[in-house]
Design goal:
This protein has one domain: Jelly Rolls (Sandwich), CATH 2.60.120. 5% of the residues lie in helices and 47% in strands. Strands 1, 4, 7, 8, 9 and 12 form a six-stranded antiparallel sheet that branches. The chain is globular.
């Protein structure tokens, strides 16, 4: 592995969630920063794995959007509504499905490149920040901190 490459779970994101019932195709986490996700000499990486924890013990089918900048994907508790210009800030879309493992009071889902394909990311921010938003494809009820996402990257 080259000196500039690094594996691990450097980015942990606990999105501020819509607390309460969400309908199909509702934004449940409006755009917010994923701090320092791509901090390396080039601010570039391949997304290799995601670990998704639902602390509310549910198995929602989610669309996780990664964005290059802090632009609105829509407001929580409503369908996504994005301008043409803002849509071009979307750098990845990961669709989770519902194959979570039930561990009692929490469910987890592990996705890899085999599930979502090779996704190359680059932050335009000097501090390596990227942004995320979440839309549910399942009618569910979340608590305010009911979702935790760990990103694993291969930096280059």
């Amino acid at each position: 592995m080259a000196a500039s490459e690094r594996l691990g779970f450097p980015a942990l994101w606990v999105p501020s969630m819509l607390a309460g019932a969400a309908a199909v195709n509702d934004v449940v986490a409006a755009t917010e920063v994923i701090s320092g996700a791509l901090v390396n000499s080039t601010n570039s990486a391949f997304l290799t794995d995601l670990l998704i924890y639902t602390l509310d013990d549910i198995a929602p089918d989610l669309d996780i959007y990664l964005l290059e900048s802090d632009v609105a994907l829509g407001t929580e508790d409503s369908a996504p509504s994005v301008t043409d210009a803002n849509a071009q800030e979307i750098i990845a879309l990961i669709q989770t499905g519902t194959a979570y493992v039930d561990l009692g009071g929490v469910r987890i889902l592990h996705l890899t490149e085999k599930d979502f394909g090779r996704i190359a990311l680059k932050s335009v921010e000097a501090d390596g920040d990227i942004y995320g938003a979440v839309v549910t494809q399942t009618a569910v009820t979340f608590s305010a901190a009911g979702l935790v996402i760990r990103f694993k990257f291969l930096y280059f």
